[in-house]
Write a structure and sequence with these properties.
The protein is α/β, with parallel strands linked by helices. The protein has one domain: Rossmann fold. The chain contains 7 helices and 11 strands. The strands form 2 sheets. Strands 3, 4, 5, 6, 7, 8, 9, 10 and 11 form a 9-stranded mixed β-sheet that branches. A two-stranded antiparallel sheet has the order 1-2. Helix 1 runs parallel beside helix 2. The chain is globular.
Amino acid sequence: MRNTDITTFKDGTNIYQYKDGFRFSVDPILLVDFFNGNSNKKILDIGSGCGIIPILLAKKKNMTNITGIEIQKKSFELFKKNLKENNLENIIKPVLGDVNNLKEGNSFDYIISNPPYMVLDGKKISTNENKQISRHEICLNLSSFAKNCKRLLKPRGEIFLVHRSFRFLEIAKEFENIGLSISKVQFVYFNKTSDSNLVLIQASKGRKSILKFLPPLFLEENGY
């Protein structure tokens, strides 16, 4: 595939990415490490991009029933290429489309997502459409994300999310307003002198949880 390069992980996993498009960082890797669900359950990744989260779920967490939905055709084609490259076509189901139109209500045990972080506030954004949609709430905002999680999850299903730390209170309010209960939170820091930039969140549908704050994660110390 033209205009791509490849990232190879220590276990031999190969992930193609567009040179001029949105490129994953440490965020999806942290999220998959944070995920603690059962391997035989049904999971949906919202906004799969090149397929990094579904592929890591299969490789690192032994998940065997994974659906990944991606709205951008360009990213979706790369998603399919990466599944073929890693021999995961029988484990991961790629779906091209808008999660708002996904007709599988009350059917997933888990939802996982590294969604667009940034609101449209009038500030200048990238002219690259792939980067625009991946980074900004153009096709999916926080409110729609939360509503879709509640709609698509089974009762007592769980959400695993990575997002920007400065939006944590907004996420918590949005989840509480529609009956999603946050159970675990872990703030991520580059090192002990930096402010937190990322937050990892686990939440449940139809189950009232006691909120637990996990010890902070320092990327520099953990080798990310």
